[in-house]
Amino acid sequence: MATEVLITGATGFVGGALVKHLHAQGIGARALSRRPDAAKEAMPELASAHRWGGADEPLPREAVEGAAAVVHLAGETVSGRWTKSKRRAIEASRRDGTRRVVDAIVAAEDGPKTLVSASAIGYYGSRGDEELTETSSPGHDFLAHVCKVWEEEALRAEDHGVRVVRVRIGLVMGKDGGPLEAMLPLFKMGLGGKIGDGQQYWPWVHRDDLVALIARAVEDKKMKGAYNATAPTPVRQRAFADTLGRVIGRPTVVPAPAFAIKTILGGFADELLASRRVVPERALAAGFEFTYPDLFDALRAILG
User: Fold this and answer.
1) How far apart are alpha carbons 200 and 134 in whole angstroms?
2) Which pTM value belongs to this model?
3) Higher model confidence: residue 2 or residue 189?
4) Residues spanned by the domain of 136
């Protein structure tokens, strides 16, 4: 069992839950943060916290030395309007941040032997009803490009004997953050509904299942390569909206036309309108059991 794991993005929506999960398993978590004192105060479960200013800076050596593994979650959020500067930040944070992480692992005298690096289902592009597994080819749009660059940087660690697991993450459902935090106010006002024609697939995953899969990747030396971190039951956006409405007891009859979404959000609208029927083939083959394979049960557990 790993003794201590270094986590970038440890104070985030997923990272914070991962810290608590590892602590419960008796595994210490080291955090990299712009404000390490605040991180330690907010998460007493942390074994230690170290300052890292992000992709423009090298990782502090003392954070990396002696760690059994690194879980790399940090990156500029993709939500919001995609201006030119936003696009540059999205790509640079992932490319350069991952490069910094790998460089630090390689330079360490007693460095981590495992790197679990976040990626995203954006890797596949928008593919309609085509079922997408880890062996499916990458897409050709902006996020697909970003994910390919992101993963290529992580894979450099393999040249130095490091086991690399790339976790392609879907829409993460959980309390106090993620897509639900953005959607709930509208749905509670009865303004939630289909986006575009509502036929696009939205691959989702409960945060607890994502965290458990990441922790499994840290420990299981047989895991290597890409893993889709999505529930085994992807749903169409229309069904997602209806299910969320049922859970909170609100109607979902107000649509958001595609042209309106594009006017408001620009390039990011393409992500809401994209269809990715992603399934976690390799996780299931490895024997991973999802606690929340069903969307209704997952949302009821979160919001009930």
Assistant:
1) 19
2) 0.95
3) 189
4) 4-174+204-231+277-291
